[in-house]
Amino acid sequence: PVADLDRLHAVAIERLPAVFAEALAAADVDRVDATLLAHLDGRVEAEVPPLLGAPAGRVEVPDLVYLGGASLPVLMARLQAGGRLRAGETVALLAAGAGATWGGAVVRVPA
């Protein structure tokens, strides 16, 4: 199989901000304390945060290689262990990958 990386990049840039807005609306919140973002293409991780604006709070991206579906849980655990995510904070999780799929959710950091 051959992936059209430029098209996947374009889809992520288009969809992730919309998915973020949908996740905020579904959670009935106007903003979050932090947004965790993971994508195979580092350009997406660099280009999406400004598109999210102030409602995204601080945006964190993995400092490891892309781990697929494990990227966000591993990032969240590392941030909690390092004291950069605190209990009670509201966090948006955004990811795109595995072809042209994407998802978003808003969660509260557990104690």
Please explain how this structure is put together.
This protein has a 4-stranded mixed beta sheet with strand order 2-1-3-4. The chain has helices spanning 5-27, 42-52, 71-81; strands at 34-39, 58-60, 90-97, 101-108. By secondary structure, the chain is an alpha/beta fold. The protein is globular and about 45 Å long. The termini are far apart. A hairpin with a 3-residue loop joins strand 3 (90-97) and strand 4. It is built from 3 helices and 4 strands; from the N terminus they run H-E-H-E-H-E-E. Helices cover 41% and strands 23% of the residues. Helix 1 runs parallel beside helix 2 (42-52).
Class from secondary-structure proportions: alpha/beta
- How many β-strand runs? 4
What is the overall shape?
A: globular
Helix content: 40-55%
Strand content: 15-25%
How much is the radius of gyration in Å? 13 Å
> Uncertain runs with pLDDT below 50, 5 residues or more?
none
What does the main sheet amount to? 4 strands, mixed
Distance between the termini: 43 Å
Order of helices and strands: HEHEHEE
Major sheet: arrangement of strands: 2-1-3-4
Query: Taking all residues together, what is the mean pLDDT?
Result: 89
**How many helices?**
3
Put the structure in a nutshell.
The protein has 111 residues and is an alpha/beta fold. The chain is built from three helices and four strands, in the order αβαβαββ.
